[in-house]
Amino acid sequence: MQLFELSSCSGLPEEVGKCIRHVLSLGEIPAxxxxxxxSVIKAIGIRYVTKGSSVPVVAENHQxxxxxxxxxxxxxxxxxVAEEAAVPSGDYCDKDDYQLFDVSGDLELQELTAGRVxxxxxxxxxxxxxxxxxxxxxxxxxxxxxxxxFEG
Length: 152
Known about the structure:
By secondary structure, this protein is mostly beta strands.
């Protein structure tokens, strides 16, 4: 996982930066999957309340995309989990490119606040949607970026 401030995303591919700027220029973030004009990158608008430490932890990973999480409002607790701390809770879903995992043990969360970006590489088992202190409302966009855009 890499964390960036929006003001210093120079380490990201140019198309990712363009998509982030587009998403942030929207008056309201659309809920669910939406297209980013002129891009192969897909976006998912998400609104939720972060979960406290008593709620079971579910993690995920992907094989064909890099997940770029952009918090628009609120604070999201995120982390990457070691493979030995995660147990697959189902088979890999090729159609939607994800696998879910049950996670045990304490999590060392990073706080992802508005104006920050988290980048999760393929195969990184990651947890999001956790409360760092108290549960709260989050609005964010997850960009599904084909791995090829990070290779060049």
